[in-house]
Amino acid sequence: MARVDLDRPAYEDAMLSDADLERYARQVIMPHIGEDGQERLLGARVLVVGAGGLGAPVILYLAAAGIGHITIIDDDMVSRTDLNRQIIYRDADVGNAKAKLAAQAANTINPNIQVSHLVARLTKGNAKSLVAVHDVIVDCSDNASTRYLLGDCAHHQGRTLVFGGAVRMEGQLAVFQSSVAGHVGTACYRCVFPSMPDAKQAPGCSEAGILGAVTGIVGSLQALETVKLCMGQDSSLTGSLLLIEAGQTEFMKITTAPRKGCSCCGTDRETS
């Protein structure tokens, strides 16, 4: 298990070298990125929870974009059934730890960034300390208990959460900033998803199936929102839930709202 440096500040001064300017040239020339935006990316710390179908494109695109420090946590091993959608892995990787392989893939794409990995499950024991030392949290998990734990922890630690989900030909995407300056009072994860569904209500990929390209769409959009947020830009998905129906190539954005009596953020609003 790799160690994550919990004492490192969230942002560090990041100056672009000549090599950086060449590597990120196609980003730096964009007016709304520029050198300042690229330096912000190099100074950012992002926690990716889950290195599967969603995590694979997220990790690859964040590494390529120049996110300066990426931490990957996943306790799973690669299985052959993962290979239709988890594009980091190859047949020879079956049986090996996803988090370690994903970290290696990220550093292969970009050897100039820091990539830490934890072959572990996100739990109540480690979630608070991990979330606290990262700027943006990307939820690429595949189970409800982790999602609710991450949603609660992101709210109470004042961190931005980029949520994604995919099953069959459907996807969901949202950004939660319910306790982040400038967005306090927007919906948290539990406002939108009040109660944990049972397996029959929300079957996973192993029960319902998943088309690999769907996880690619959702994961790529998660990476896009994360990059924008790390540059200090607002996300149009804060206070919204994006629904994707890939069978008909339809996208629908619905407005979310804080829920009175929410077990995560309701007390904060009542006492503020």
Task: List the topology elements.
Elements: H1 18-23, H2 25-28, H3 34-42, E1 45-49, H4 55-65, E2 69-73, H5 98-109, E3 114-118, H6 127-132, E4 136-139, H7 144-157, E5 160-167, E6 170-176, H8 189-192, H9 205-208, H10 212-230, E7 240-245, E8 250-255, H11 266-271
Helix pairs in contact: 4-5, 4-10
- Contiguous low-pLDDT stretches (5 residues minimum) are 1-11
Quick one: overall form? globular
Percent strand equals: 15-25%
CATH architecture: 3-Layer(aba) Sandwich
- CATH hierarchy, class: Alpha Beta
Alpha-carbon distance between the two ends: 41 Å
Number of strands: 8
Largest sheet: 8 strands, mixed
Structural class: alpha/beta
What does this structure look like?
- This protein has 272 residues and is an alpha/beta fold.
- It has one domain (44-271): NAD(P)-binding Rossmann-like Domain (Rossmann fold, 3-Layer(aba) Sandwich).
- Helix content is 35%, strand content 17%.
- It has 11 helices and 8 strands.
- The chain has helices spanning 18-23, 25-28, 34-42, 55-65, 98-109, 127-132, 144-157, 189-192, 205-208, 212-230, 266-271; strands at residues 45-49, 69-73, 114-118, 136-139, 160-167, 170-176, 240-245, 250-255.
- An 8-stranded mixed β-sheet has the order 3-2-1-4-5-6-7-8, with helices on both faces.
Name a few traits of the molecule:
272 residues; alpha/beta; eight-stranded mixed β-sheet; 11 helices; disordered N terminus
Write a compact overview of the structure shown:
The protein has 272 residues and is an alpha/beta fold. It is built from 11 helices and 8 strands.
